[in-house]
C-alpha cells in the first residue's frame, strides 16, 4: 500500500500543480482517482484521499446525468469544476500530507522494515 501511495503521488503531481485535484480526476478518470485515493487513505493521508474519491464520485454522477458532448471538452470540464467547487479545496498539499502520513505509518508499522529472512534478536 505504501508503494501504491507514493506511485499515486508521482502520477498525480503534475495535474495537481497545473490545475488541482479536479483536473487530475478529469484527466485520469474516476478509477485512477479512486485507486490513488484509497491508497492515500490506507496510509493515513485521509484528507486528499477522501477528496479524490469524492471527486471521482462527482464525475461519475455528472457523466451519468449529463453524458458528454465530445466536441466541447473544455465546456464539460468547466461544468465539472463548478459542480465540485474547484480548484481550491482547502486541503494540505498532497506531498506534504503524504509525507507526514508515511512517517506516522512507519512508526506504527516497524515490522514492515524487518526482513523475514534475517534472524533479529528479540532481547
Outline:
By secondary structure, the chain is mostly helical. The chain has helices spanning 2-18, 21-43, 46-66, 73-84, 94-108.
Salient structural properties:
123 residues; 5 helices; elongated
How many helices? The count is: 5
Q: What fraction of the residues are assigned to beta strands by DSSP?
A: under 5%
Beta-strand segment tally: 0
Mean pLDDT, nearest integer? 90
Structural category: mainly alpha
**N/C terminus separation:** 30 Å
Q: The biggest beta sheet, please?
A: none
Approximate helicity band: over 70%
Which shape, going by the Cα principal axes? Answer: elongated
**SSE order:** HHHHH
Please tell me how large the radius of gyration is: 18 Å
Q: Could you name the ranges where pLDDT drops below 50 across 5 or more consecutive residues? A: none
Structural account:
- The chain is mainly alpha-helical and 123 residues long.
- The protein has a domain at 2-87.
- Helices cover 72% and strands 0% of the residues.
- The protein has five helices and no strands.
- Helix 1 (2-18) runs antiparallel to helix 2.
- The longest helix has 23 residues, at 21-43.
- The model has no long low-confidence stretch (mean pLDDT 90).
